[in-house]
Specification:
By secondary structure, the protein is mostly beta strands. The strands form 2 sheets. Strands 1-7-9-5-3 form a 5-stranded mixed beta sheet, with no helix packed on it. The radius of gyration is 17 Å and the shape is elongated. It has helices spanning about 1-20, 30-35; strands at about 25, 45-55, 60-65, 65-70, 75-85, 90-100, 105-110, 120, 125-135, 150-160. About 25% of the residues are buried.
Length: about 170
């Protein structure tokens, strides 16, 4: 079952990034886009942070702040903290989503730790940054008119070192 969870991570990432489904955020659109954005100062959005750990992973994982206030068109930086309280190295990999799901298309991550293996040595504790922005087009979308709260949620799963996953449909 853990293998299936691990195998689902890259497939989930590809599918959701391609479709924007399931509250998947957009990838940052480059430095030029960020420099050209104009902040929508009259539209303040509260962003809350959630952290979960699959039962197979023996890590402590939490956001370092419960919430921040941002305006569309400005970058923001948040941090999560992960600790391996065990006496052995453990590799984790995370997935994420945004709620409400419809806001995911406007939530752009410039840098984050998701979908990349994170190796924590015994008793190691690390800060994990998430650099993001909400696209200014968020403020123009009538479906987002009543959205003033967005939650960014990460879930970490254990990854097995040296495990190679076959592509689906190929032997």
């Amino acid at each position: 079952m853990v293998g299936m969870s691990y195998a689902a991570v890259p497939l989930y990432r590809l599918y959701c990034q391609a479709t924007g489904l399931g509250g998947t955020t957009g990838a940052g659109r480059g430095a030029a886009r960020i420099e050209e954005m104009e902040a929508v100062k009259e539209r303040v959005v509260k962003v809350t942070f959630n952290a979960d750990v699959h039962s197979s992973l023996q890590w402590n994982f939490r956001p370092q702040q419960s919430e921040i206030y941002v305006v569309p068109g400005e970058t923001a930086l948040a941090f999560y903290k992960a600790k391996n309280p065990t006496d052995k190295p453990i590799i984790g990999i995370s997935t994420y989503n945004v709620v409400p799901f419809e806001a995911g298309q406007y939530f752009n991550k410039i840098q984050c730790f998701c979908f990349e293996e994170q190796r924590l040595n015994p008793q190691e504790e690390v800060d994990m940054p998430v650099f993001f922005y909400i696209d200014p087009e968020f403020a123009e979308d009538p479906k987002m008119a009543k959205v003033d709260l967005i939650t960014l949620s990460y879930t970490f799963f254990e990854a097995k070192e040296g495990q190679h996953l076959p592509l689906p449909g190929y032997q």
